Amino acid sequence: MMKRISTLIFILLTLSLLFSQEFERYSAEDFKSRLDELIKEEADFALLDIRTLPEYQFGHIEGAQLIDFYGKDFVQKLNEMAKSKTYLIYCRSGNRTSQALQIMKQLEFDNVIDLENGIVSWLEAGFEVVK
After folding, report:
1. Is-above-0.85 flag for pTM?
2. Which has the closest alpha carbon to 112: 9, 44, 25?
3. Rounded-to-integer distance, Cα 131 and Cα 126, Å
4. Phi, psi angle pair for 10, to nearest 5°
């Protein structure tokens, strides 16, 4: 009996690991390449900037939609989005994005790509931003 329970627990844990969504973290170069691919393919995706409005106005990646992580409606806005769509997400340095990814996992998003070290890494790589 104990062996059956142990086996069942093992199977359930294995299945949960197989089906749990781990989001990807891309370097600035890989993030830009993936963004360019999605644009070229005319794929259904969204680029999310989760910084504050002043940060966004200072410079953001072209095509980025602002959703302020500190806004009182941040979770509500995320929850209203299509969970099966591809999302590319970034903040300033990666801290807010790490927290946002946890929220997005709880909300059961399928495919989220994080810009490692945020827009700081984007700028360090020499990529342009728009104001």
Report:
1. no
2. 25
3. 16
4. -60, -45
Mean pLDDT over all residues of the chain? 88
Q: What does the block give as tokens for 12? A: 């359930």
pLDDT for the residue numbered 52? 98
Strands (E), 18-110: 24-26, 45-49, 65-66, 86-90
- End-to-end CA, the chain: 65
Distances (CA, A) of 74 to 13, 77, 81, 114, 122: 32, 5, 11, 17, 24
Assess contact for 127 and 101: CB atoms under 8 A: no
CA dist., res. 26 & res. 29, Å (int): 8
pLDDT of residue 1: 55
Q: Which of 51, 31, 52, 46 is nearest to 114 (CA)?
A: 31
**pLDDT of 116-125, one tens digit each?**
999 999 999 9
